[in-house]
Amino acid sequence: MSGTLYLCATPIGNLEDITLRVLRLLRESDLIAAEDTRHTRKLLNHFKISTPLTSYHEHNSRAKGSHLLDVLRSGKNVALVTDAGMPAVSDPGADIVQLCRAHGVSVTCAPGASAHSAALAVSGLGGGGFIFEGFFPREVKERRECLAALADEYRATIFYEAPHRMRDTMRDLTAHLPPDRTVAIASELTKLYEKCLVGPLCEIAGQVEHSELRGEFVIVVGGVSKQELTSRDQAQFGNMTVAEHVQAYINTGLDQKSAMKAAARDRGVAKSVIYKQLLTKL
Fold first, then answer.
1. Closest CA to 219 of 125, 151, 139
2. Which of 12, 14, 32, 260 gives a 20 to 30 Å CA spacing to 189?
3. Per-residue confidence at 232, pLDDT binned at 50, 70, 90?
4. Helix (H, G, I), strand (E, B) or coil at 29
5. Which strands sit side by side in the sheet containing 156-161, from one edge to the other?
């Protein structure tokens, strides 16, 4: 019988956030695979855990993944941890999970603290659903595509960002999104100096520009509001007459009733207003 790979969430700051189950699994597993053994050793020492430790990170994931698979297939259990939060989420741990599943090795999760869910919760922006994108794209093309998609995204979008790239990222957001789009910037989550700034993009970007930036950051970009969509559509169709607006929708295949309803939505008025204006043109 093969062993089990346990995905164990570790604290993102406050050590009290570790779960009793994770502590038990770290003690009972035959081996702990860690992103940074020096960082994890401090955690293990704090809780007096002496389980053997090995490294597993993006630079050795292929070779070490094969080794861990052999350990698991020999019947031993392995606990996988990242430096903070949930392994295999925006993390090379996803590779070993896929490898285990491809070879019929059992994988299970011991959930716990997660920076993106903590930031979403304290931001208050997650009521309408959310998207987690991991670290903000670094490549120019991917970054441009990401920023363009944010303009029409109705759900909150969550990114991780390093402190030395925060100012550039906020400048990019400011250049591509309306100044009143709501954003939240969370840092030092669950730690002594935890901070979460929430407000219009223009204000938050200004605060970031003039702040001392420490620790990893979580950016939550609020979804596009109905008011933003309405004002954008009004600007787009503002140069059209009502008749031209309705006809534009008819040309896409809508019947007249549906076209009138769509035009009314764009202009932020009732359908009856569109109907009356069309009648005056007849």
1. 125
2. 32
3. low
4. coil
5. 130-135, 156-161, 217-221, 182-187, 195-200
